[in-house]
Amino acid sequence: MGQTTFVKPGRKTQGNTKKKSLRASRVDLPFVLIVICLIAIGLLAVYSTSWVYSEVQTGSPHTIAARQILWVVLGIGVAAFLTYYDYHKLKDWSVIIMGITLILLVVVLFPFAGSLSRNLVGNSVQPSELAKLVIIIYLAVWLDSKQEVLNDFSIGFVPIIFIVGTIGGLIMAQPDASAVLTIFILGGVLFFFAGGNLRQILLLFVLASGVGYLVIQISGKMDRILSFIAGLGNIYDAPEQIQRAIQAIIRGGLFGVGIGNSVTKFTGLPAPWTDSIFAVITEETGLIGASVVVLLYVLFLWQGMDIARRAPDLLGKLLASGMTVWIIVEALINISVMLSLIPVAGNALPFISMGGSSMVTSMIAVGIILNISRAAKKEKKTAPVERTSSAASDLRRRNGRRRVSRNGHSASTQAR
Fold this sequence. Notes:
Blueprint: H1 2-24, H2 29-58, H3 63-83, H4 90-107, H5 127-145, H6 153-172, H7 177-193, H8 198-218, H9 222-233, H10 240-252, H11 277-310, H12 314-338, H13 356-380, H14 391-397, H15 411-415
Helix pairs in contact: 2-3, 2-11, 3-13, 4-5, 5-6, 5-7, 5-12, 5-13, 6-7, 7-8, 7-12, 10-11, 11-12, 11-13, 11-14, 12-13
């Protein structure tokens, strides 16, 4: 009897320990590991590409890399906080952060703020990067609240055009063509995932194309398009950045020349630690290293969209899918430029390129996605699991609530 009494508490204590460990492991570990791998590759690549420039400019080869580490630490801190900060509370902050973003986008246009570089605070803060994050949060909250009237042209479509157009217009004034197009892409993607009418989505992308053409004309960057087209026929007619990037990629071969042994980063490759960092990674680690980076982004997309599919409500689905698509669009644009698949755009490679705004905003997105993942795991205990063949179809059709009401279909009919 004494032995039985002794064994039972021991088992109970073991069970409690297991429960505590389960509570502590609610964070989506595979997703976290993907992000950690990308950040580690980025820190190594930033140091490899910047140490000579850093030594010449600051007297120390470690200055630029150390600055990036500080941004990473700050980003991790913010992501950790947001992982445990209920994403539903973003509803209370969406208008405020949108207002702050609009102010920053206006301030950066004034000469004293440094409009030529589109940056603030010593080129460390880029409002257009913040705008991409904020537009996702604001539209997710707005679309969630307007779900019942989303497909009403005057109540649903016109306001979203106004919201996206206002942000896009301020960025266009800088000008930053790639950021404007990214904003419109995110608006269309979120409208689609919220269950928006496909004809209206098509109209949105037609408008985005028109805006993109205007941005290119106004900013005087049509020569980028023309040189890109010329480069398709002859690489020597392509922009200098593309020529050097292709040279680096070819030189890398299958296994690369070795980490730190890139030559093109010293012989004219523009922005080797920011926009062109993927070319240096490919040169130093070869096709294998480049494939690992691409695979990590594919896994990020897979995990992010799976988290969006499992989100307990529409707001979570829109936030997770929007953040995931944004990171992947940025990566896709950057890599496509280096491969001469699209004209030079100037997008950073998320988690890898040097830059405070890109790193911190990307980590904010990671924190929000992890928070939604935790909420999904809590809901799983009380709600049945729905399995679908595609995250996109799940977001549009299985969002846990009634679709937009249409003529001849009452709520009771929908329920039946």
